Amino acid sequence: MRLNQSIIALCCSALSLQAYGFDRVTGDTFASRSPVYAQHGMAATSQPLATQVALDVLKAGGSAVDAAIAANATLGLVEPTGCGIGGDLFAIVWDAKTEQLHALNASGRSPKSLSMADFERLGLSYIPPYGPLPVSVPGAVDGWFELHDKFGKLPMDKLLQPAIDYAENGFPVSDLIAFYIDRSVAKIGNYPGFKETYMPSGAAPKTGEIFKNPDLAATYKLIATQGRDAFYKGDIARSIDEFMKSQGGFLSYQDLAEHQSDWVTPVSINYRGIDVWELPPSGQGIAALQILEMMEGYDVASMGQTSPEYVHTFVEAKKLAFADRAKYYADPDFAEVPVKQLISTEYATERRKLIGDKAGKSVDAGNPALLHGDTIYLTTADAAGNMVSLIQSNYRGMGSGMIPTGRGFILQDRGQLFSLNEGEANSYAPGKRPFHTIIPAFATKDGKPWLSFGVMGGATQPQAHAQIIINMIDFGMNVQEAGDAPRILHTGSSQPTGQVMKKGGVVSLESGFPYQTKRDLMLKGHKIQESLGAYGGYQAIEWDSANKVYRGASESRKDGQAAGY
C-alpha cells in the first residue's frame, strides 16, 4: 500500500514539474512553451504524427476539413485509447467564403431492436460500460464524408493513405498511449480480438515500440475506395452485424444502413464582447455557455486565477449548470430541450442568485420557462481562412471492447450514458441518441473567427471550455498559457444517467493552486481531493486578424503538438 502511495506521489510530482516547473524569460511561469505562429496553415492535435499528416495535407492543397479528416484517421490508429471509427464525431467549421459557422452532429443512435424491457429482463439498473449492450451506431465515418462533401478538396483516398501507411508499416507508440493501452488490458483485454489487435506480441506495446494494425489498414482501404457505404451498407456493416449477433448484441446491419448525420445550428452567448459557440444537445456544450453567462456577472479579473473566491464562484456556477444538464440535455428528437432559455442572460441572472458564500451540497435544476471517458480533439486552419474544430471519441477510453472480427477498431460504448429511469429526458429508447459528452467549441469576435478550441475528457470539457475563455479574456493569457494554466475540476454533480448530487461533490485543483486557496475552500465547505490525469487535453488555434497570423497551442498534459507553416 505504501509503495502504491509513493508511486502516486511520484507521478503527481512529475506531472507538477512537467506542467508548471518551467523557467521562462517571457510569459507566465506555468506556460510549457510559447504559442506556435504561422501564416499559411496550422494544425493542433493530441499526437505529433497526426499533426504532421494534417500539415502535409494542407501543403498539398487540401482544405482545413481535408487536414482534419486525415488527422482524425491517423489518430484512430496512433491514439486508439481516445478515438476511432467505432465512435462518434462532432465538428464546427468556419467557412471563410461565406463567413459562416457550420456545425455537424455525427453521433449514432441506439439499436432499434434493444428496448427498455430488455434491460429489465436482464435485471440491470444501469447500462454496463463494456460488452455488447452499450454499443450504439458509430457516426464518425459518416461524419468524415459529410464534412468532405461540403468542404473537401482532395480525394478521400489521399486523405486516408497516410493512416494506411502507418497502419501497414508501423509507428512508434508514444508515452500516454502506451500507458492507456496497458490500463485497458485489465478492462477489455479478454474480449474477442483485443489481444490479436493490440497485443500481437503477447503484451501491450510499450513506449517507443513499433506497432502495426494491418486489419485497420484493410478497413481504411475499403472506406477509401468504396466510400461511406462500405462502412454502413457494405462488407464492414455486414461484419459488424455478424459479430454483434455472435456476442449477444443488438446493433444490426439495419441500424447502420439507416444512419445519418445532422447539420445543426450552433448556439452562442456573448462573454464580454466575444461570441462563444457550441453545439446544442444531444451534447453538453451549452453547459459551458451557462457557466460563462453566470460568471459574467462577477468581476472575475480582480479575483485572480488561483484565488479561493474565483474557484468557489466557478464551482458553484458549474454545479448549477450541471443540475440543468442532468435534467434537460438529451436527444432533441425525443425530448424538448429549452436551449434558448437555458443560455439566456435572464436565466443566468436568476441562477446566479443561488450562489452563496458556502459550498452547495445539493442543487436543483432550474425552471427556464461525466467524468469518465477519453477523447481526441483537433483543430486545423488553412491558407484560405477556413478553420475546423473537431472532436471524436469511443467514449470510455478504448470503448466497449467489441472488435468486429478482422476490422482493427473497437466499437464505442456511448450507450452507457442513457438513463434507465423511465420518464427522463435522457431515458433509454430505441433509435435514440444518448446524451453526449464530447463537444467542439469556437469563438468569434465582431462576426469574424477568433478561436477554434476544445478540451478532451468527459464532464471536464464544459468546465475547461469556460476556463479557457475566462483565462484569455479575464486573466489576459495567451492561447498556450490559457491551456497550461492550472485547472479547476468539480466532480459529483447530478448526471443525465440518473445519479443525484447530495453531498456537494468534490473539487480537484491542479498543481499550481496555493495551499491557502485549498484551505479557504475547505472552510467554505468544499471537499478537496487530489486527481491525476483527469484535467483534460487541450488544443487551439487563434486567428490574429491584425497580423494575419495563426497562433497554435497544444496540451502539455498529453502527447500533442501544434505546428504550422
Your description of this structure?
It is a single chain. The protein has 565 residues and is α+β, with helices and mostly antiparallel strands. The protein folds into two domains: 275 residues, no CATH class; 186 residues, Orthogonal Bundle (Serum Albumin, Chain A, Domain 1). The protein is 37% helix and 17% strand. The strands form four sheets. The protein has a seven-stranded antiparallel sheet with strand order 1-17-16-13-12-9-8. Strands 7-4-3-11-10-2-18 form a seven-stranded antiparallel sheet, covered by helices on one side. Helix 3 runs parallel beside helix 6 and helix 13 packs across helix 15. The longest helix is centred in the middle third of the chain and has 21 residues. The protein starts with a helix and ends with a strand.
List strands and helices in order, with pairings.
Layout: H1 2-20, E1 36-38, E2 42-45, H2 48-59, H3 64-78, E3 88-95, E4 100-106, H4 116-121, H5 140-151, H6 156-169, E5 171-172, H7 175-188, H8 194-198, E6 210-211, H9 214-226, H10 229-232, H11 235-246, H12 253-257, E7 262-264, E8 267-271, E9 274-278, H13 285-295, H14 300-303, H15 308-328, H16 339-342, H17 345-352, E10 374-381, E11 387-395, E12 441-445, E13 448-456, H18 460-473, H19 479-484, E14 488-491, E15 506-509, H20 515-523, E16 537-544, E17 549-553, E18 561-564
Antiparallel strand pairs: 1-17, 2-10, 2-18, 3-4, 3-11, 4-7, 5-6, 8-9, 9-12, 10-11, 12-13, 13-16, 14-15, 16-17
Helix pairs in contact: 2-3, 3-5, 3-6, 6-9, 13-15, 13-17, 13-18, 15-20
Active site: 375
InterPro entries: GGT-like_enzyme, GGT_lsub, GGT_peptidase, GGT_ssub_C, Ntn_hydrolases_N
Keywords: Acyltransferase, Glutathione biosynthesis, Hydrolase, Signal, Transferase, Zymogen
